[in-house]
Structures are given as structure tokens and as C-alpha cells.
TrEMBL record:
InterPro entries: HAMP_dom (IPR003660), His_kinase_dom (IPR005467), HisK_dim/P_dom (IPR003661), HisK_dim/P_sf (IPR036097), TCS_sensor_his_kinase (IPR050428). This is histidine kinase. One of its GO terms (molecular function) is phosphorelay sensor kinase activity. The chain crosses the membrane at residues 12-38, 159-182. The lineage of its organism: Bacteria, Bacillati, Actinomycetota, Actinomycetes, Propionibacteriales. Keywords: Kinase, Membrane, Phosphoprotein, Transferase, Transmembrane, Transmembrane helix, Two-component regulatory system.
């Protein structure tokens, strides 16, 4: 058995692993849904800010004193003229200007006055709105405004970190608590197993054996799984004890039967031996000796037939049924 199989083989290990797995799955599901819900909420709030920013920029005098903060972006794409944009203010000369790569990415935003996500190559991800309107110089064009998603991303990253940390701590706590609880709940099974091991160590092969070990009554409540096992083991031990007692009684009967049969066979054998010696010493007594030998032989035959009958009864074999002359039986009995 490999070390991994040896580790998960005990029931307590499998129960703890199952419980910890459920805790882990539930924690991951909760963390995933919480992260998705929070990100959706933060993005919606960010989109509202982007809408407010777009309305302020698209007012009667777009660009006048519009300070939208360092995490915002504004870019204009006039119909007649080069595109320009900056971070933090509408006035390009006072803040950081957008690079051509950033302007190219913003130029691909659909002009539908709806928030979209865009990744600026030099400044990261933003939520932006593109809308057509009048530019500060009176020209027509497209104005793209938006705000960085760094704050949202940082919040989500912080949330994921704490979720991972709390999930890990929860799994460790569940493993420790589950091990203690499951080990305590399975302690009755160890008592049942100890009873079985004690009985298994008894010499049951021969002789009179008394199986007195039993599972305690408090562990035989059949309303519980452990109680069902304990009650079943006690029933098994009762049956084993009864069978052993019956076997011992049968062995005693066999011994007694063998002793009685030996005694009964010894008498005719002694008689046959005596008359045989008499016939050898006195030839005139041969007819008498042969008659006695025949009589004792018939007696031994009857004893052997009785032995065979008892053997059949002991084996449970069906008895042979033959007609019997009751008159002769009565005469022999009298």
C-alpha cells in the first residue's frame, strides 16, 4: 500500500477529507460570488462617475476648468485636426499627455455614449465613454472620457487575498475541528473492535470455551449506526458461544460413546478369545467354542449396527424404514 493510500485508508481520514473538501468548495463558491458581486458593484459605480464626467465635459463650454483628477483620461478626436489627450485635465499643456499608442487604443472605442473597457498600453485599464460633440475650438469631433480601474482592481486584489487567507485558515480550522469531532464520534467503534480482538485471541479450537466478552449495552442502541454494529456483534458472539457449547457437548457425547462402545466390544472379544484358546487346548470342545464364537460375533454385529445407526443420527441422515415383527420384538424383550 502506498503512503497516500495508507493515509486515506482509515475511516476518520476519509470523513475529515470529505468534510474539509465540502468546506473548501463552499468557501470558494462564496468567495467567487462575493468577488464577482463586489467587482460588478464597483464597476457600476465607476461607470456612473464616468457618465458624470462625460456630461461635465460635454457641457456648453467643454474643457473650461474641468479638473477630473489624476486617475482620469480625456482625449479628443477632431474631424479636422490631430488627436490629442491627457491624464487629469482637459488642458493638455498642464498634465501628462497620452502617447500615440494610448490614443490609438481610445480611437477604437465605439461612439455610443456607453461605458467600455479599454487597456491603454502605457497607462493600464480604463472605463471610458466616447461621444460626439462640439470641441472647445468650435470644431466637431469625438470626446473620449474615462477613469482608471486601478482602484477597482486594487480593491478586488485585496479582497481575493483576504478571501484566500481566510479560506486557508478556515480549511485548517475545519480539518483540526473535524479530526477531533470525528475521532470522538468514532471512539465507540474502537471499543467494538477491541471486543472483537479480545474474542479473536481466545483459544476456540478445542475444549470447553466460555465467550463472556460482550459489547457494552451503551453501544448497542440500534437507533445509531454504531449501536447496530455493537448489537450485531453481540448477537454473533451469542451464536458463537452457543455453537461452542454445543460442540463441546457433542465432543463429550462422542467420548462417552467411544468409551461405552469400547467396553461393550471388549466383552465379546474377550469371550471369543477365551473360547478360541479352549478349542486349541481341548479339541473335543471345538463345537461348543464355535457356538459361543458365533453367538458373540452376532452380538458384536448388533453393536456395530447400533454404532452405525448412532452415526447416522448424529449426521442427520434420513433413517431407513423397514417392517418389524412386533410379536418377535415382544418375545425378545420379555
Amino acid at each position: 500500500m502506498t503512503p497516500l493510500k495508507r493515509l486515506v485508508a482509515p475511516l476518520i481520514s476519509r470523513l475529515v477529507i470529505t468534510a474539509v473538501s465540502l468546506v473548501l468548495v463552499v468557501s470558494l463558491l462564496i468567495a467567487t460570488f462575493a468577488t464577482i458581486a463586489l467587482r460588478e458593484t464597483l464597476v457600476n459605480r465607476l461607470d456612473r462617475d464616468v457618465h458624470d464626467m462625460a456630461r461635465s465635459v460635454a457641457g456648453p463650454r467643454p474643457g473650461s476648468n474641468v479638473n477630473i483628477g489624476p486617475d482620469s483620461v480625456i482625449a479628443v478626436f477632431p474631424e479636422n485636426g490631430p488627436a490629442q489627450g491627457n491624464l487629469g485635465d482637459f488642458v493638455p499643456t498642464q498634465v501628462e499627455s497620452l502617447t500615440p499608442a494610448d490614443l490609438e487604443a481610445l480611437a477604437d472605442v465605439p461612439v455610443d455614449a456607453r461605458p467600455h473597457g479599454v487597456d491603454l498600453p502605457d497607462h493600464g485599464p480604463y472605463r471610458v465613454i466616447a461621444q460626439s460633440g462640439n470641441l472647445p475650438d468650435g470644431d466637431q469631433g469625438v470626446v473620449v472620457t474615462g477613469r482608471s480601474t486601478n482602484e477597482v482592481d486594487n480593491t478586488i486584489e485585496s479582497l481575493v487575498f483576504w478571501e484566500a487567507l481566510l479560506t486557508l485558515l478556515g480549511v485548517l480550522a475545519a480539518a483540526g475541528a473535524g479530526y477531533v469531532v470525528v475521532r470522538r464520534q468514532l471512539s465507540p467503534l474502537r471499543e467494538v473492535a477491541a471486543t472483537a480482538h479480545t474474542v479473536a485471541a481466545l483459544p476456540l479450537s478445542s475444549g470447553e470455551v466460555s465467550v463472556t466478552e460482550r459489547v457494552p449495552d451503551r453501544l448497542t442502541d440500534e437507533d445509531t449506526e454504531v449501536g447496530q454494529v455493537g448489537a450485531a456483534l453481540n448477537s454473533l458472539l451469542d451464536h458463537v458461544e452457543t455453537s461452542l457449547a454445543e460442540r463441546h457437548r457433542s465432543e463429550q457425547q462422542v467420548r462417552q460413546f467411544v468409551a461405552d462402545a469400547s467396553h461393550e466390544l471388549r466383552t465379546p472379544l474377550t469371550t471369543i478369545r477365551g473360547y478360541t484358546e479352549l478349542a486349541q487346548q481341548r479339541p473335543e470342545a471345538v463345537p461348543t467354542a464355535l457356538g459361543k464364537v458365533e453367538e458373540e460375533t452376532l452380538r458384536m454385529t448388533a453393536l456395530v449396527e447400533d454404532l452405525l445407526l448412532l452415526a447416522r443420527l448424529d449426521q442427520g441422515r434420513p433413517l431407513a424404514r423397514d417392517p418389524v415383527d412386533l410379536t418377535r420384538l415382544l418375545l425378545e424383550a420379555v
